[in-house]
C-alpha cells in the first residue's frame, strides 16, 4: 500500500494533536504572500472514519473520490480500510494504483463510456450502477460479468446539490421494468442504490429511500434474483460543527426495520463528510480598490482582490453552491465597510462574496476560509496563469502510530522541524 507519495505534499508529523490555527500562524509568518495554500489536518479524517464506524457500524463507507482526489486523502482512507466510489477509469486507476483491491471499488456512475467499461472489466472492477435499459445493453456488451446495482431516484428537494434530474429511475414505475430487462439479458443484478442529493438537509428521506429499496428486493425475487447489496449513497454533512448523529439514527432504524438480515451488505458513498472540515484555505489580499461616493466623498464600498478565486478553490461557489465565510488573520479593527471580495482573474464572474461588512484590510493581509476540503481542489484550474494552492499536510504522532499499525507505510514524510522521517512499521526515526 503506497502512502503519501505526491512530491508536492510533504506530511508533517507533530508530537501534539494538530493545532490548525497555530500552524497557520507559523506558515503565514514564513511564506510568501504571493500564493494561497491549504492546511490539511489528517487527524480530522481519521476521527471522521472512527466516528462513522461507531455511529453506523453496518454501513461500509465507499469514499466518493470525485469530492477530493488528492493522494494523501485517498491513501489515508485506504489505509483505514474504507472502500471507494469511482466515477471514471481515471478514478479507478488512481485507487488501484494505491494497492486497493478491485472488490473495494464500486463504479457508481450510471452512465459510463464504453472504454471505461472495458477498463473496469480488464481490471476486475465488476460492481457498478445503472439506471436505464440502454446502459444495460452496453454493459452486456463490454462487461457481461458485472455485478449490477440499480440506482433509483429518491430526492431531498432541499439538498445542496440535487442529483435526481440527471440520475436514478423511478422506484415504482421504471425500476421493475429494468429488473425484467436485466433478467432477459441474463445480467447479474445484485442490489439497489440511491443518492438523496449531495449536502442533504432532509434526513428522513433516507428512511423513505430504504423502504423503496426493500420493495424492489422483494420484487426481484419473483425473477429469481437474490439481492444482497444496498447502497445508500452520499449526502452526509462534513463541515465543522455538523454531525451525522441524526442521519445515522434514521439509517440504523430503517435498516433494522427493512433489512434485519445481516447477509445484506450495506454501503454508502460519503464524500464531503470525510474531507470538508479537514482542509483550511489561506488566501492573501493582493489588490484593493476604494469606491467613494461621488457626492459626499465618503467611502461607499471596499473591494478586495484575493489570490484565489472561483476558477480555482472557490469553484465550489459555482458547482457546489457554497457560501464561503472569510476569517481575518491579523489585528484588523475599527469601522467596518461594505466590502466585496473578488478572485484574482480577469473575469467579473470571479466574485467570492458580493457584500460583507469588514474592517479595512490592507495589501498582504491574510484571509482564511474553513471547510474547504469538499469539491474545491478536485475541480480547480490554473485559469489566467494563476498557480493552484499548495497543500501542507499534518498529522499527530498519535495518529501516525494508529496508521502505522494499519498498513505498511514505507514512504518519506517530514517532522515539524523539517527533518525527514523514514516511515516503517517498527518506528519513526530521523533520517
Automatic annotation (TrEMBL):
Transmembrane segments: none annotated. Pfam families: Orn_Arg_deC_N. The keyword Lyase applies. GO terms for cellular component: cytoplasm. Residues 43-276 form the Orn/DAP/Arg decarboxylase 2 N-terminal domain. SUPFAM superfamilies: Alanine racemase C-terminal domain-like, PLP-binding barrel. GO terms for molecular function: ornithine decarboxylase activity. One of its GO terms (biological process) is putrescine biosynthetic process from arginine, via ornithine. InterPro entries: Ala_racemase/Decarboxylase_C, De-COase2_N, Orn/DAP/Arg_de-COase, Orn_de-COase, PLP-binding_barrel. Its cofactor is pyridoxal 5'-phosphate. The modification N6-(pyridoxal phosphate)lysine is found at residue 66. The active site is at residue 346. Keywords: Lyase, Polyamine biosynthesis, Pyridoxal phosphate. Catalyzes the first and rate-limiting step of polyamine biosynthesis that converts ornithine into putrescine, which is the precursor for the polyamines, spermidine and spermine. Polyamines are essential for cell proliferation and are implicated in cellular processes, ranging from DNA replication to apoptosis. Belongs to the Orn/Lys/Arg decarboxylase class-II family. This is Putative ornithine decarboxylase. The lineage of its organism: Eukaryota, Metazoa, Ecdysozoa, Arthropoda, Hexapoda.
Amino acid at each position: 500500500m503506497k502512502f503519501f507519495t505526491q512530491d508536492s505534499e510533504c506530511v508533517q508529523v507533530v508530537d501534539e494533536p494538530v493545532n490548525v490555527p497555530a500552524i497557520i500562524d507559523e506558515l503565514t509568518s514564513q511564506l510568501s504572500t504571493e500564493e494561497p495554500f491549504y492546511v490539511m489536518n489528517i487527524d480530522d479524517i481519521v476521527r471522521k472514519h472512527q466516528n462513522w464506524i461507531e455511529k453506523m457500524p453496518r454501513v461500509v463507507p465507499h469514499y466518493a473520490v470525485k469530492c477530493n482526489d488528492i493522494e494523501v486523502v485517498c491513501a489515508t482512507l485506504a489505509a483505514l480500510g474504507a472502500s471507494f466510489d469511482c466515477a471514471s477509469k481515471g478514478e479507478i486507476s488512481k485507487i488501484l494504483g494505491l494497492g486497493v483491491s478491485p472488490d473495494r471499488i464500486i463504479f457508481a456512475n450510471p452512465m459510463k463510456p464504453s472504454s471505461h467499461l472495458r477498463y473496469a472489466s480488464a481490471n476486475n472492477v465488476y460492481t457498478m450502477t445503472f439506471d436505464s435499459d440502454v446502459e444495460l445493453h452496453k454493459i452486456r456488451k463490454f462487461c457481461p460479468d458485472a455485478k449490477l446495482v440499480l440506482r433509483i431516484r429518491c430526492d431531498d428537494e432541499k439538498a445542496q446539490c440535487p442529483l435526481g434530474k440527471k440520475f436514478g429511475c423511478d422506484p415504482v414505475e421504471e425500476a421493475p421494468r429494468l429488473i425484467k430487462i436485466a433478467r432477459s439479458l441474463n445480467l447479474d443484478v445484485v442490489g439497489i442504490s440511491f443518492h438523496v442529493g449531495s449536502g442533504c438537509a432532509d434526513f428522513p428521506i433516507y428512511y423513505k429511500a430504504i423502504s423503496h429499496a426493500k420493495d424492489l428486493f422483494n420484487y426481484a425475487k419473483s425473477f429469481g434474483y437474490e439481492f444482497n447489496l444496498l447502497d445508500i449513497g452520499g449526502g452526509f454533512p462534513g463541515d465543522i460543527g455538523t454531525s451525522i448523529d441524526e442521519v445515522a439514527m434514521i439509517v440504523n432504524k430503517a435498516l433494522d426495520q427493512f433489512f434485519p438480515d445481516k447477509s445484506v451488505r450495506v454501503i454508502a458513498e460519503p464524500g464531503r463528510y470525510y474531507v470538508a472540515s479537514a482542509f483550511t484555505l489561506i488566501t492573501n489580499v493582493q489588490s484593493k480598490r476604494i469606491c467613494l461616493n461621488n457626492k459626499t466623498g465618503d467611502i461607499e464600498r471596499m473591494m478586495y482582490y484575493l489570490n484565489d478565486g472561483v476558477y480555482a478553490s472557490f469553484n465550489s461557489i459555482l458547482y457546489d453552491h457554497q457560501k464561503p465565510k472569510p476569517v481575518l488573520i491579523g489585528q484588523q479593527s475599527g469601522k467596518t465597510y461594505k466590502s466585496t471580495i473578488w478572485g484574482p482573474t480577469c473575469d467579473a464572474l470571479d466574485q467570492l462574496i458580493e457584500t460583507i461588512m469588514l474592517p479595512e484590510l490592507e495589501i498582504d493581509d491574510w484571509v482564511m476560509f474553513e471547510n474547504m476540503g469538499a469539491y474545491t481542489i478536485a475541480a480547480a484550474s490554473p485559469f489566467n496563469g494563476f498557480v493552484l494552492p499548495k497543500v501542507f499536510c499534518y498529522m499527530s504522532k498519535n495518529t501516525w502510530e494508529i496508521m502505522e499499525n494499519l498498513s505498511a507505510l514505507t514512504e518519506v514524510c517530514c517532522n515539524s522541524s523539517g527533518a525527514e522521517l523514514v516511515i516503517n512499521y517498527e518506528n519513526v526515526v530521523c533520517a
